[in-house]
Design a protein that fits this description.
The complex is a heterodimer of chains A (156) and B (754). Chain A is globular, with a radius of gyration of 15 Å. Chain A has a five-stranded mixed beta sheet with strand order 2-1-5-3-4, with helices on both faces. The termini of chain A are far apart. Chain A has helices at 24-31, 87-95, 104-117, 123-129, 140-155, and strands at 3-9, 12-18, 50-53, 56-59, 72-74. Chain A is of the alpha+beta class and 156 residues long. Chain A is built from five helices and five strands. Chain B has four domains: 3-218, 2-Layer Sandwich (Aldehyde Oxidoreductase, domain 4); 234-295 and 348-436, Aldehyde oxidase/xanthine dehydrogenase, molybdopterin binding domain (Aldehyde Oxidoreductase, domain 4, 2-Layer Sandwich), CATH 3.30.365; 302-347 and 440-519, Aldehyde Oxidoreductase, domain 4, CATH 3.30.365; 558-753, Aldehyde oxidase/xanthine dehydrogenase, molybdopterin binding domain (Aldehyde Oxidoreductase, domain 4, 2-Layer Sandwich), CATH 3.30.365.10. In chain B, helix 1 runs antiparallel to helix 3, helix 4 (75-87) packs parallel to helix 5 and helix 15 runs parallel beside helix 19. The chains are: A alpha+beta (156), B alpha+beta (754). Chains A and B meet through helix 1, helix 2, helix 3, helix 4 and helix 5 of A and helix 7, helix 8 and helix 18 of B.
């Protein structure tokens, strides 16, 4: 049976009517038209659907919408603003990272949370923290540069 | 404001607004109808009309209509630079529109790294001709000879006299003819009477302009093909046969009765579900009970794949290089070297499964596709639904990565078939297994090198032979339904093109033979293992073997790999690129890898390749861990000559991407299958390179040749990687790894055997 679930996305209160088991990804994309989180695999194997739930990165493709009731969701579009991009977004722009760009929610949302807790990471820590996030265009070198650049900005 | 201005502005605004695809069909009167009502309307969209390529807007800015697309590597930015350069307009004042059959000529779509090499040259010629026409008009208006005029950022000047592009033509059409070679697709060429600029005059070409679209993507504003909606659309998912080659026997429609609005669409062996809501379509595709005919074991056991290839009869055979007398030279060889190499089936495994929206109903049937070939997709969808081609419009929208003929072409045909069947616009998005398990695969092959050395260590004969599944079991485009799953599951009999590859290099061996054979498909119809173009088709496969083998021959001749290659190469660009890579890496001919019994072994390897006019040389440095078998491709030094460089910024990330994706293919990627189905269905069963295994550094030396036209850069540095890694592993361990992927398990086993 469909139920009503209220939560906050990118600072805005929203409500969706859905089966409790429906993944958050479909609530965001299909019901709310917030298309930044992408469907990559539906199995939490690639990261393309990553959003923050109360500040922590979560794979929305396997997170039932019922678990989000009353919580605060942030998507890539809510990470920074046009006037003030998140330092990671700025670093991604400066380094010209994405090619197809479909993977961005995975990297940016995961790295943003990681850098908040690890403001001065080593290369090895960055490599480890990003395990499981996929990029098929092979932009890995630029991703490393951008995360390091953002870390410098954040800890400056 | 006249009709032309309105249409131009509508067109420009339409394309500059993200998500405007929805807005476009809500516009009161389409762009086309606005044009057709205009007495001085746009000439027909034919390549011999200048207006098909360049428009000058009322404010004097320009729009370029590009019949290829950018798949994220900045081809559009380079085209923008080329057009701005020849038009003498500021870079920011040029807008590039891509991949819409109503607005752009069919230049072949994204294909074979020809975006600039071929597609960009049409735009260059058209822009130069547009400038010439504008300057001539200015000459008439100002009463000054054309050769006395100069142009600066769209202002034509002579002394104190000046007139702008806006004054001259803003919002009006050129109505000016170009010479056209009467070909569509990649070979399309157009030419005006204008003389192109000399490289010494360039202001925009050769500068590292950034890709503006990157900001849109990073800020979450970019709409992908997966993100657009059209009014009244329903959601679809396909249901593929459980076992390859099985026919659809029965569908239990009651099994999805509990899901609101869900229904079955079936035509012969094609099966899909549709529902008003996307999640309902997903659930219905999982819940649907289907009876397929019994499994028929179309595939050999996976472990025997390469023996299967060796033993298979050939369908076509060619020997493109046959110089001297190879067989005779082998008879007197002082030393003979023979080695065989194996490459697996590989999946495009694009970041997101393909998506398409089709509305095959009404007066203007529409397709929105993320495929590399919107023009050909239009043909395919029209043919599979029986709709007149000329009525239909196809629009490309950025997709979730593609790297060749992935499943996007199949998705478009599926969506068209479903839309026609139910009479509604349909959005079809594949699930992960529909992409990884069911995309056309990069072909598996067996490669054999034979070489004869004389007593002095010179190469007396060289014989290279490749055998495998054709690279075009399905064509490179989806123009014909026979090349799509929707077609093959219904009434279109498949018919592949038999084509393989020999190494692209210029070694001057006196007695040299290079040939290939293709073998029959394992399953002719509707096969999840049908083969097709995957990034740099047969490039990594062939050159893994050929450049590994050259390394083996060099070692047998006790020669340094760099010196050995230089000994047999004479073309100036080949020599220059090899020397540049060696220099960049500080290559030392007397230095050997670590070998020995330690846990961590380090070594360096070299490779050189050519691809359609671009030459690349690469040094790889690897670390091999004895205990785990892990190979870390740690450092690369690449020298790259693709002729004239349009954008020295974007090309660096393009080369990095080529190298990193090729590392993944070399060390990890192999499509797994049993005798009835593909077992690689997701990222767990088809892993790709993680950030943890990314190189520490990739250093790139660009060789710019402004006197040449630009050659491709989107793929050539891909094929150089596998052999460079394998040769570095040999340097580190003394072991030749001749089978890809070089997984930790295979490496461990090889080290244990050594």
């Amino acid at each position: 049976m469909a139920e009503k679930f209220s939560f906050v996305v990118d600072g805005k209160s929203v409500a969706v009517e859905a089966e409790p088991a429906m993944p958050l990804l479909y609530a965001l994309r299909s019901e709310l038209g917030l298309t930044n989180p992408k469907f990559g695999c539906g199995k939490a194997q690639c990261g393309a659907c990553t959003v923050h739930v109360d500040g922590a990165p979560m794979r929305s493709c396997v997170t039932p919408v019922s678990l989000i009731k009353g919580k605060r969701v942030t998507t890539l579009a809510g990470l920074g603003t046009a006037e003030k991009p998140h330092p990671l977004q700025q670093a991604y722009i400066d380094e010209g990272v994405p090619q197809c760009g479909f993977c961005l929610s995975g990297w940016l949302m995961t790295a943003a949370a990681f850098l908040r807790n690890n403001p001065k990471p080593t290369d090895a820590q960055i490599r480890q923290a990003m395990t499981g996030i996929k990029c098929r265009c092979g932009t890995h070198m630029a991703i490393m540069r951008a995360i390091k650049r953002a870390a410098q900005t954040l800890s400056a | 404001m006249n009709m032309n201005e309105i249409s131009n502005i509508a067109r420009r605004d339409f394309f500059k607004t993200t998500g405007a695809l929805v807005i476009s069909i809500a516009l009161p009167g389409s762009i086309e109808s606005a044009l057709s009502q205009s007495p001085s309307g746009k000439p027909p969209l034919l390549p011999d009309e200048l207006d098909s390529w360049i428009a000058i807007l009322p404010n004097g800015n320009a729009t370029a209509y590009f019949g290829k697309m950018d798949m994220g590597q900045g081809v559009d930015v380079a085209v923008q630079q080329i057009v701005a350069e020849e038009l003498d307009l500021a870079f920011e004042r040029v807008n590039v529109i891509m991949g819409d059959t109503a607005l752009t000529c069919n230049q072949g779509g994204a294909s074979g790294s020809t975006g600039l090499q071929m597609g960009g040259m049409a735009l260059r010629n058209a822009a130069a001709e547009a400038r010439r026409v504008l300057v001539e008009r200015a000459a008439q208006k100002l009463g000054v000879a054309a050769d006395q005029l100069r142009v600066e950022n769209g202002v034509v000047m002579s002394g104190s006299q000046r007139i702008t592009y806006s004054d001259l033509i803003g919002g009006q059409y050129f109505h000016h003819k170009l010479e056209w070679n009467k070909q569509y697709g990649n070979p399309l060429k157009v030419q005006g009477k204008a003389t192109l600029k000399k490289p010494s005059e360039y202001k925009v070409v050769g500068k590292p302009f950034p890709q503006a679209v990157i900001t849109e993507k990073v800020m979450g504003r970019q709409k992908f093909i997966t993100d657009i909606t059209v009014p009244g659309m329903v959601h679809a998912r396909v249901v593929r046969p459980l076992n390859a080659g099985c026919a659809l026997v029965a569908v239990d429609e009651n099994s999805i009765k509990h899901i609101a609005s869900a229904r079955v669409v079936r035509e012969q062996n094609f099966l899909a579900v549709v529902a008003d809501k996307e999640w309902d379509a997903v659930r219905a595709s999982e819940a649907l009970k289907v009876k397929w005919s019994p499994q028929c074991n179309p595939f050999p056991p996976m472990a025997t794949l390469h023996d299967y290839i060796r033993k298979a009869s050939f369908t076509k055979k060619e020997t493109p290089v046959n110089r001297g007398d190879v067989d005779e030279a082998f008879k007197t060889a002082a030393k003979t070297i023979v080695a065989e190499y194996e490459w697996p089936l590989q999946s495009h495994a694009s970041m997101g499964p393909a998506c398409a929206i089709a509305d095959m109903n009404g007066d203007t049937p529409r397709l929105w596709t993320g495929s590399q070939k919107p023009h050909y997709g239009r043909s395919g969808c029209a043919r599979i639904t029986g709709i007149p081609l000329e009525k239909m419009r196809s629009t490309w929208v950025p997709g979730p990565g593609s790297y060749g003929r992935n499943e996007a072409g199949d998705c478009a045909a599926d969506a068209a078939l479903i839309s026609k069947a139910i009479g509604k616009p349909v959005r079809l998005q594949y699930m992960r297994h529909d992409a990884t398990a069911w995309d056309p695969k990069g072909p598996a092959g067996v490669y054999r090198g034979r070489a004869a050395l004389d007593a002095a260590g010179n190469v007396a004969a060289y014989d290279f032979f490749a055998k495998g599944f054709t690279r075009q079991d399905v064509a490179t485009t989806e123009a014909d339904p026979k090349d799509t799953l929707a077609g093959q599951f219904t009434r279109f009999a498949p018919k592949g093109t038999l084509i393989f590859q020999i190494p692209a290099e210029a070694y001057t061996f006196e007695n040299k033979r290079c040939g290939w054979e293709t073998i029959p498909a394992m399953l002719e119809r509707g096969s999840p293992l049908r083969t097709g173009h995957f990034r740099d088709p047969l490039g990594p496969e062939t050159h893994f073997a050929s450049e590994s083998f050259i390394d083996e021959v060099a070692a047998a001749a006790n020669a340094d790999p760099v010196a050995f290659r230089l000994k047999y190469l004479t073309r100036e660009r080949d020599v220059a690129v090899i020397k540049a890579a060696a220099q960049k890496a500080n290559w030392k001919s007397n230095e050997r890898g670590s070998r020995g019994k330690g846990n961590l072994m380090r070594g360096r390897g070299f490779a050189y390749t050519e691809r359609n006019g671009t030459v690349v040389a690469l040094v790889a440095e690897v670390e091999v861990e004895r205990k785990t078998g892990r190979v870390w491709a740690k450092k690369f030094w690449c020298a790259h000559d693709c002729g004239q460089i349009i954008n020295p910024g974007t090309i660096l990330t393009v080369i990095e991407g080529n190298i990193v994706q090729a590392i993944s293919r070399t060390l990890l990627e192999e499509v797994k299958f049993d005798q009835n189905q593909v077992l690689s269905v997701d990222w767990a069963t088809y892993p790709i390179l993680e950030l943890a295994d990314t190189p520490e550094s990739i250093e790139i030396a660009l060789i710019d040749r402004p006197e040449m036209s630009p050659q491709g850069a989107g793929e050539p540095s891909h094929r150089t990687v596998p052999a460079a890694i394998a040769n570095a592993i040999f340097d580190a361990t003394g072991i030749r790894m001749r089978k890809v992927p070089i997984t930790p398990q295979r490496m461990r086993e090889a080290l244990a055997r050594a």
